[in-house]
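Board notes (copied after class):
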Amino acid sequence: MEPSEKKPIITVKNLTQRFGDNTVFEDVSFEVYKGEVLVIVGGSGCGKSTLLKIMIGLQKPYSGQILYQGMDITRASDEELNDYRQNIGVLFQSSALFSSMTIKENIALPLTEYTDLDPETINNIINMKLGMVNLAGYENHNPSELSGGMKKRAGIARAMALDPRVLFLDELSAGLDPITAVELDELIINTNEALGTTMVIVSHELESIYKIAHRVLMLDKEARGMIAEGKPLELKEHTTDPRVKSFFLRQLPAQHGEQRLYVN
C-alpha cells in the first residue's frame, strides 16, 4: 500500500560525508514520505549503509541536514536524539541480538530502557510482537537456537517494540535462502500495510526491491551521490542512464555486440 499523501516525515538536505580526503557522497537531498517503503540501492562502496547510519543518528555528516519533523538530528542534543530514537526502530545485517539473552530479554530491552511500563504489560507487548513476526513460543530461546531467518524476524520484533514511526533495515535478506527471503518480504509488506510504518531499507536483492519498494533511491560510487529516484519498475523500463540500467537489468556493458549478464 503506497502512502496516500506525500507528507515528508524525514527530509535530507544537501548531505555530504567525508572521511579524510575520501568523499563518500556529496550534496544528497531527498524526502522520506510518511507511510512509504523507501529502498536505497547502489553498488558496493557507494555509501548506502553510511547514509543509513547518519539518518539513524549514529554518525555525524561532514555537512548537511536531516530533519525529522523539523528537528535537525545532525545538530540535536543528546536528549533530543534520545527522543528521536524512541520513534525509530533499527535492524542491521547481523540482527544484533545479544547472544547471552533470550529472545524475550532482547525484545524487552528498549521497553525497559525507554518506558516505565510494568512487567506484565511488557510481557504482553513481547508476546504480541513475537506473534506479529510468527515467532510465538520462542520467547525463551537463545539467538543461537534460531535459524538466520528467525533471527532476522526476532530482530524486527525488537525494532518494532516501541511501535516506531520509522523502521530502518540494512540488507534484510542478505545471506538467507530464497524461501526465507520471500517470507521476510511478506512480513515487511504486511507490517507496512497494517501499521502504516514508514520504512527505509538498504538492499541489493532485485526481486525483493520490486516486491516491497514504493520508491527507490540509487547512489553511485563514482558520481559520489544520488543518480536516480523513482518507482523500481519505472526505473527499470524507462531509464537511459547506463549505470541505473546495469543495476536493474543486472547487465554489464555489451562488448563486441554481445549482451552479458551481471553476476552478483
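Comment from the instructor: Residues 9 and 34 are 5 Å apart (CA to CA). The mean pLDDT is 88.
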